[in-house]
Design a protein that fits this description.
73 residues
């Protein structure tokens, strides 16, 4: 009887894992397949940043580090 209960618990756990795995693949299977092929599934939205009064972006310079160390990095 113990072996029958153990088998029943094992098979029900296995069934549960298959159901959960199928739900995960249904939700994100296309994303996973696209990632494995090396391309994006959904094109990224166009991102524009508009700032008033600033025509060019400022690049932050590292501070407190000698110029020689900056060039080496």
């Amino acid at each position: 009887m113990t072996a029958a209960m153990g088998t029943l618990i094992f098979l029900s756990t296995l069934w549960f894992l298959v159901v959960v795995g199928a739900a995960v693949l249904e939700e994100s299977g296309a994303k996973i397949a696209a990632a494995l092929k090396g391309r994006q599934n959904v094109p990224s939205p166009l991102r524009l940043s508009v700032t008033a009064g600033q025509s060019r972006s400022r690049h932050a310079q590292p501070r407190g580090v000698p110029v020689i160390w900056r060039a080496a990095a």
